[in-house]
Write the structure tokens for this entry.
Amino acid sequence: MIRTALFALGAFAMPLAVAANPAQPAQATQAFSNPFFEAKTNKYGAPAFDRIRPEHFRPAFYEGMRQHKAEIEAIANAKTAPTFDNTILAMEKAGLFLDDVSAVFFNMTSANSSAPIRAIQREMGPVMAAHSDSIRLNPKLFARVQAVYDKRSSLRTPEQRRLVERVYQGFVRSGAKLNPEQKARVSEINQRLSTLSTNFSQKVLADTNQFALVLETEADRAGLPQFFLDAALEAGRARGMPGKHVVTLSRSSVEPFLELSTSRAMREKAWRGWVLRGDNNDAEDTKATASEIVTLRQERAAILGYAHHAAFTLDDTMAKTPANVSALLNGVWEPAKAAVTRDAAEYLELAKSQGFKGDKLEPWDWRFYAEQKRRAKYNLNEDEVKPYFSLDSMLDAQFWVANQLFGLKFKEITGTVPVYHPDVRVWDVMEADGRHIGLFYGDFFSRESKQGGAWMSSYQGQDRVNGNLKPMVVNVLNYTKAPAGKPTLLSYNDAETLFHEFGHGLHGLLSNVAYPSLAGTAVSRDFVEFPAQIYEHWLGQRQVLERFARHSDTGAAMPKELLDKVMAARNHDQGFATVEFLSSALVDMDVHSQPNLPKGFDMGAFEKESLARIGMPREIVMRHRPTHFGHIFSGGYSAGYYSYMWSEVLDADGFRAFTETGDIFNKDVAKRLRTFVYGGGNSRDAAEAYRQYRGRDPDPKALLEMRGLADGTSNN
């Protein structure tokens, strides 16, 4: 398909970067009892995870690339005049085998990596980038694409015109109009960036896995509730230290520890391990890798005619320009800093009342005293709330919301479909009348083979061109698994992340377009978070919590008094949350807006200078420091981390379409949401899709009001 060749430069916001160089020995393409070369035998056509082994990937990749190259050459060298069908549609039908192999492999590199998988990733990255460039920079192919583009007004449907425009822009942004010398250099850069991106992600994973804070004594474990100790004991077992309580650098482990531990010394150790990932001046240090990535992106943007990488990236987004992004971020930054200043004074006063001797709080103190403040103001503590947020009950909640909004049904079929790890669960997703929509995989627990964070990806996208293929999507999260026989308990923020990723999942599952390159999440980066973030809102509604926030031991509903406190405390410490996010977005935009950074520049020094320019509060660090900022150095969000806040403007205003009716499941609004947002893919411009849903452009004031920052406070 077209997306196979065009992802690497962001022509389409697809979850997989797939491309390769097919010039390999003949034996590499031979099938030797390789499941990729065999017909899928399960009912849904799902990947044969039970049979796929690392040694199957290389021959499958090379065969896929061989097929893809032949298909593309046939299109480029056709003697007939270019038409939509023989050029654009033909490209939609190309590369299917390569797509299948890539979907499995690149999900494995993030969700279930191993030494053999990582070796293949390092080897194949630049080879695949070269193959991708051989398509994007093919002059004969581009000439045919341009011929169809020039006559696009005569095409039969708006979606055909949209596809042609997106394909054409993708080629141009990839360098199709450059001279041969420029094309050669862009291809060299792309291959090197592929290597560096892999290098960055593998170093961060290794550095993360090297850390384990063992809580040896009662003093080390002081203040920690039983649910945390249970999870820490399971983490110790998983790390080969049975009987030990271990804090890992999974966010669901380290953040609760920083909130709950009364041992300041242990909090500092955990905090330093957390923020210094990739920044320990050792074999896993990423500063030089990140620096080279930035300067290569800068060089490529200049070749393509842009002032810098940020200008290149934003030219194909809703935001359009760095100035528009800065206006949004800076408009929220000052109110957030004002809230942090006030909160810092209140937290210090609280700390001193509890015996704190210093004159200022350190970063490893903030979460602890923010939690103390929450307990004091709302009479609410985490060990009281968590039993009502079990993973299973929150899964039931997210499925129920989808049923109420869209009539969807979910039937768990775990055990009947192959999976890549025993923890993975699978659901058959159906329309109200029982028609199959797709498969939903859930991979919820942290492990050493998995990258940190949370994400959605696909094994197969919605596709009517190549046989009415149904989506297969996966949500990957990193919760700390409870010991056998005990429920995994989530914080409210954990549950919000669950809903967020399921919103992405629905964006893939409910896709309803004609062409696969426009399907599902193949949208502008600053629109793709909107379907995920608007879905978070339903978690915070009383109708949902009253029904699903039930005690994991007794099954009793959350008492109204406790529910009232949970609802009241939702915006607690929003100044901190906003500052740690915004600082990451601002530094991302800053480093990618520099046209003249020298090769080998010091990333650590740049980070300090950038934070000084924006007046970063000393008590807070970036949510993602550059040395482990996978979003921008290995995840497709370079000069794009702002997208979460851009989409937050949309979701804050967009959810009001429901609340204004007095019914959070209003059928008419839900129908528009499904049609134009979850189902529309990239079949229309993102701004127009929002207008079709909402009836107007978004109101930016809704963002500050939702975060509780409209008056410069954070609802403490």
Notes: DSSP finds 29 helices and seven strands in the chain. Confidence is low (pLDDT under 50) at residues 3-23, 25-31. The domain at 2-177 is CATH 1.10.1370.40 (Neurolysin; domain 3). The radius of gyration is 25 Å.
